[in-house]
């Protein structure tokens, strides 16, 4: 009897080894290794901890398992653990259930995203993924803060058929940690995998968290193997993510990588009008709000709150006074010159005077060079803003400052920074 038991154990270990040799090591560790192996009447019986695990193994890994069983003259059966155990089993969903922390979020339709030519590609990719199965997975959406990545992710969530799981990167970290603490990690795994579309908004939040990252990588591998749709958002491209190893970057980039550009002036105007801002006010403000969707939302909230609380109409004058801390300063040439006077430590009156001391002359030449680089003003027009100088004086100043800046790196950097600021 003991000899038969020993032979059976030897056969099971051989079978385990044969299966491990044919599978990815991570998939074997996550799905096959936890199974109970038995041989009953020439049948290899693999018992999973819950129905989802059994279904997933049957749909994804059955071919490998069946081929190994046949090699040993056995049939295959994958079932669910049905015998009660004395102590709760962490991954038995009949004993413990994972309940996600729910969050309320407004429903979003794709027409809520104001598209431009630059964003037409990523918008089309999102719509196609939401409409059904696509050949690319994951869809990796990246762009600066406030460009609309989260809005697109919510649009996919609300337009997709089937079950959708959407989390922020921070929520995934905290929920994974909570499931470990509550001893229901396998229920958490099941929750994430039992979906048709999985969306993680802000994958950057996983950077440097090794245990969470390992679990997330295996989740992506399993979802891809099962033909599920995956959407990830980030503030940068996969190759530029910090805190992620090369394997993670490679997996993120293996589907479709698409960028979202920040809203341009026309998009900002449309967003303001859609939120109820008068058209003339929206037109005046659009060019003076930074290209950040979050900032635009803040501006809209402030305007709406003021109109409601003060019971007054929002005019351009009211909006400029209300948003003085938010709007960019006017970039008229005279405003630029006056601002440069403050930066260079000279008075505007002195710049416009006939004074010829060295510091004053250098300040005038810097101002002329900045106006020439940041605006489309003619040389004569530039001279008029710097004390009424003529065309020849401006041309001479530009040549002199070019020679000086070629050897003075500090001056060259100062001029370049000013030009970038005033453009």
Short description:
With 423 residues, this protein is an alpha/beta fold.
Structural class: alpha/beta
Count of helical regions: 20
Poorly predicted regions: 83-95
Number of separate domains: 4
**Annotation, overall tally of beta strands:** 8
Helix content: 40-55%
Major pleated sheet: 5 strands, parallel
Q: Which fold name corresponds to the CATH topology of the largest domain?
A: Rossmann fold
Question: Averaged pLDDT, please?
Answer: 82
Widest β-sheet, arrangement of strands? 5-6-7-4-8
CATH class of the largest domain: Alpha Beta
Question: Can you put this structure into words, describing what you see?
Answer:
With 423 residues, the chain is of the alpha/beta class. It is built from 20 helices and eight strands. The protein has four domains: 2-80, GMP Synthetase, Chain A, domain 3; 110-259, Rossmann fold (3-Layer(aba) Sandwich); 265-322, no CATH class; 333-422, Chromosomal Replication Initiator Protein Dnaa, Chain: A (Orthogonal Bundle). Helices cover 55% and strands 10% of the residues. A five-stranded parallel β-sheet has the order 5-6-7-4-8, sandwiched between helices. Helix 9 links the parallel strand 6 and strand 7. The protein is elongated and about 105 Å long. The termini are far apart.
